[in-house]
Write a structure and sequence with these properties.
single chain; about 525 residues; alpha/beta; Beta-Lactamase; Rossmann fold; Helicase, Ruva Protein, domain 3; five-stranded parallel beta sheet
Length: about 525
Amino acid sequence: MPIFKKIPPAETARKIAPEDFLSRENQRLSGLVDVAEILGQQSDFHEILRVVANKAASLLSAEMALIMMINPLTRETVKTVIRAGQEVSDPGLHFLHTQITGWVTKNQQALLSPDLQQDKRFGARFFADIPVHAVVCVPFVSEGILIGTLLLMSQEKSKVFREDDLACLKKLAAIAAPFLRNVQKLQEYFATPMPEAGLLSKYASMGLIGKSATFIQLLAAIEAAARCDVRVLLEGQSGTGKELIARAMHRFSSRTDQPFMAVDCGAIPANLVESELFGHVKGAFTGADRERKGLLEQASGGTLFMDEIENLPLDLQAKFMRVLQEGEVRPVGSNVTRKVNVRIISASSLSLRELVDRGKFRSDLFYRLYVYPIYVPALADRREDIPLLANHFLAKFAAEQKKRVTSFHARLLDFMRQRSWPGNIRELENFVERLVTLVPPEKQVVNHDILPADLQQEFRRSKTSGSGPSVNPSLNQRMQDFEKQIIQQTLVDHDWNQSKAARVLKISEQKLRYRMTKLGIVRPASG
């Protein structure tokens, strides 16, 4: 099994034509400007790390970006390993990360290695068991102090980092370092992030339900994006709730009093997409008996959510670029442009990067949309949230259908937690609605005996028990559960005093708070 998701490289070691080189440099320059704009509106340390890592990987078409931050006072480190929204826990990669960062820190300079396995700066076969081919690593320096490093890696032998990649990464590090340093200083005095309980309550009101560490990380990214008036790209499987996320971003943004419009680019016939987005004048085509504003103009001042944007026809992608560049639209059949001021939140269930590599999506449009990327996890990545979501839908449909049912039997909940949900939250919602429809009006508990025939056999095959799911967890999951148990018990033993707990665990308070966030540890409400 691969350690991390492979992403086909956008470019290989082949010679690049001058015009392609200039186009790529312009895209990178635009990306760097976007980074500066976004970071200027952030105050959350971990969200800044996520944005910088994602942007670096995108600009250099790298498979993985790793950041190590060093506190100059405590020498404690904060590591983030980002690609497609996932953290990587492979010890081999962490060993490589530590060694490369150590070299950069010791030598106080960047490192570029087109072929790490043959790099004489390290011992022979030093990284022989680690499937990484090329690396590039630069330091974060602020006020003359090295505060961290940014490392990009590639497994593919066809992907070789070059001097222009190194130059781009140095610029990104120079832009990001002051923001990272300032936020570090601010957080010594202020607890700027919203408490988890407040975050969960705030977004539950918008229908975003959960409590897992993965879900809390998603909410933190949404909260940060809501404060920035920049384009957002949501990537994740179908049915994960991307439109709900877009609505929440709009609701808690400065545009909240302006229109929110949504369009599914895959649901509109190709010959009508242009008119739907840009509008048309009377007589523009057969049936156009009156002038009509397009969605971009209707949403002006507010937000337009464009779902499944990968389905936007290539010829319209070029016209859509004008909207993003110039802030104006030209209705079908008109020679006059109209100014619009609209925030675009786009979403895709496919990797736009892979579509660019296959020539199915314009690279210039991709970089215009990929300003603030957020990966939306699949339901399989947040199974802890399934009971919460299921009970939320149960209450909703029971009220709609005027049923008395209030809960699920434990075995049925176990079954739902173990079950594969290829349709994600949308499939779970439809599943619960189906059960509520089948349950007798007087029943209060949904039992497995009402499962439809097509699901009864699947239920019998599942190994469920009243004590919880029996799916064998991975080693990493078991280690995380064990760590969570130790930290939680230590906090309880010391009346949730984080300072005392950190001393007992022999870690810094900063690291303790970080691990609590990652593992979803929240002090229970009193009473």
